[in-house]
Amino acid sequence: METVLARLLPGAQIAPARLHAAMRYATLEGGKRVRPLLTFAAGEVAQARPERLEVAAAAVELIHAYSLVHDDLPCMDDDVLRRGKPTAHVEYDEATALLVGDALQSLAFQLLAEHPLADDPSAQLEMVKLLAVAAGSRGMAGGQQIDLEAVGKALSVPELESMHIHKTGALIRAAVLLGAACGNGHDAALRERLDQYAKTVGLAFQVVDDLLDHDASTANLGKTAGKDSRQGKPTYVSAMGLARARELARELRHNALQAVAPLGPPARRLRELADFIVLRKF
């Protein structure tokens, strides 16, 4: 995936060189690449061709990278560390970091539009729409707005779940469904199983993130540990307690595995990723 992203991003020597270098800085050499892994795993179930999957996976990861750059800005979470290195606005400057996010988002949709990813053009158009909705006000951006408004407030568990379905879950769901759409993922029964899996692991990812923010160190996380609680942000740990949050993560893992159990051996990577998402230590 690193090789694919390095190839699809503009070269650092191409004008405007500072912007392109910053885009590469924010995207390459770091991160777990969970969303691209999910795209490839779902594509494996749907018998998709690798050259299609790598473009879809890159598009999702570019959206994710842009969101991290913007989340770290002083006007948002005001963080100085991401993926074990200075955040984009610290390494470059705030204005450049803003443009990095804008450009990464644009590039994601350019990739979906200019590469053949589906046999039917209308199906590919639906893929573009899927990612746009996941990234927009009804998805990730909307979830971030809810998150900003929730600082200092005590959210109920259903309210917290609704926020993270948008903020974290929407892009994870898109990663899975885009991978499937590169193959035979338009089959209604298969799509339903993958959709249920994606929604479940999306929530599990956030629950575990909250647990790690509580338990892990800054060195292991590659970002500032414990910042959510210090900023008064509601988390699953604050809403239900440490023990119940851990139990919820285990339940979500079980539900994700159950969703793809009937898919047999082709879903092995999806099962392994559910394990990774819940059992990871950082």
Brief overview, please?
This protein has 282 residues and is mostly helical.
Describe the structure.
Strands 1-2 form a two-stranded antiparallel sheet. The protein has 282 residues and is an all-alpha fold. A hairpin with a 2-residue loop joins strand 1 and strand 2. Helix 2 packs across helix 6, helix 3 packs antiparallel against helix 15 and helix 8 runs antiparallel to helix 9. It has a single domain, classed as Farnesyl Diphosphate Synthase, CATH 1.10.600. Helices cover 71% and strands 1% of the residues.
Number of strands: 2
- Helix percent reads over 70%
Q: Main sheet: which strands, in order across?
A: 1-2
For this structure, the CATH topology is: Farnesyl Diphosphate Synthase
The dominant shape is globular
Tally of structural domains: 1
Keywords:
282 residues, mainly alpha, Farnesyl Diphosphate Synthase, two-stranded antiparallel sheet, 2 strands, 71% helix, globular
